[in-house]
């Protein structure tokens, strides 16, 4: 229970807000570069850094440039980088076999980063959308996304990522049973130390638009993802998904998108106490970066405020495209 507070004027809550020193003493929430996972887009080629027009300041990087980014992340104190491949449309197929090709872009980038900056944790994404001619995270059969056949493919994809050296695997597909299936495969194949960061509460969101552009998956996408991603109004269902994924062997859970879903972050942390992350997604980034570019908001202040809010809501960390910019500011 809340201790009783003396009435005004004995209690003046502005006393602790008067100077920076006093404010620092009573600060409840701290933000450090150690709170960030930096998502980066990988493409083929060499020496390439290609701007993504709906995400000002974010580029698709060739593997050599991703390695440079990884070095930068490590120097800034960012503990992890997360890879998303922009796949040549010619490699997209019905069976999505490129997803478990040991030589695919994601696996090449993982190996290159682990060779150059072994201390940096590499996270990879499990879902078929970068490789699927339909743009979906799972197989489409007769107008339906099929669950169990998709899970078999996701298991192969996850194994190829672990073989390439991924430290953290992030299933973002929202199929049922994939965490358990991937966990058993990793155990059986000697990858018992690979972490699973489950995109457990992932909502069918309009805020993923710029990401789908970045990945070249928006043109391809047939229909929407509502048969596997959640209804934005469902909070109890989010708790059931988180509980389910933890029970199947997820080490950490994610809520996605972030800012419109801080109540879900808070509930997840309070109800389960597991390491909890939010994904400040591409559309959130675009809103802040776009408004800042036009001078409508102070970009740096809005960025830091949004990131602090995730910590206040109970998140242990945030996947954010702002990671390097925020870390630079924090490091002074
Ligand atoms: C799909 C995936 C998406 C994102 C990460 N993984 C998009 C989607 O579900 O359509 C979105 C990330 C972002 O918007 O920044 N597997």
Automatic annotation (TrEMBL):
The keyword Cell cycle does not apply. Keywords: Heme biosynthesis, Lyase, Porphyrin biosynthesis. One of its GO terms (cellular component) is cytosol. The active site is at residues 202, 256. Its EC number is 4.2.1.24. Belongs to the ALAD family. This is Delta-aminolevulinic acid dehydratase. It comes from Ponticoccus litoralis. The gene is hemB.
């Amino acid at each position: 229970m809340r201790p009783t507070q003396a009435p005004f004027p004995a209690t003046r809550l502005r006393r602790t807000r008067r100077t920076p020193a006093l404010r620092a003493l009573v600060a409840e929430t701290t933000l450090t570069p150690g709170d960030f996972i930096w998502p980066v887009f990988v493409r083929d080629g060499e020496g390439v850094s290609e701007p993504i027009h709906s995400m000002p300041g974010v580029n698709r990087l060739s593997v050599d440039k991703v390695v440079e980014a990884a070095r930068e992340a490590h120097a800034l104190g960012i503990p992890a980088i997360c890879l998303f491949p922009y796949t040549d449309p010619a490699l997209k197929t019905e069976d999505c076999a490129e997803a478990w090709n040991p030589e695919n872009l994601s696996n090449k980038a993982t190996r290159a980063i682990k060779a150059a900056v072994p201390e940096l944790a590499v996270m990879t994404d499990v879902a078929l959308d970068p490789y699927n001619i339909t743009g979906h995270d799972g197989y489409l059969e007769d107008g339906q996304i099929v669950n169990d056949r998709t899970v078999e493919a996701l298991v192969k994809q996850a194994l190829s990522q672990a073989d390439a050296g991924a430290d953290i695997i992030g299933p973002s597909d929202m199929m049922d049973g994939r965490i358990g299936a991937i966990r058993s495969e990793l155990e059986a194949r000697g990858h018992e130390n690979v972490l699973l960061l489950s995109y457990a509460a992932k909502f069918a969101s309009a805020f993923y638009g710029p990401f789908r552009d970045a990945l070249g998956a928006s043109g391809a996408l047939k229909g929407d993802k509502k048969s596997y991603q959640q209804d934005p109004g469902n909070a109890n269902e989010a708790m059931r998904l988180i509980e389910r994924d933890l029970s199947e062997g997820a080490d950490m859970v994610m809520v996605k998108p972030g800012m419109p879903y801080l109540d879900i972050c808070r509930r997840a942390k309070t109800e389960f106490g597991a390491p909890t992350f939010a994904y400040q997604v591409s559309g959130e980034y675009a809103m802040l970066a776009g408004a800042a570019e036009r001078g409508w908001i102070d970009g740096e202040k809005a960025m830091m405020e949004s990131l602090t809010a995730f910590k206040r809501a109970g998140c242990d960390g945030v996947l954010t495209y702002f990671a390097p910019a925020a870390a630079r500011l924090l490091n002074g």
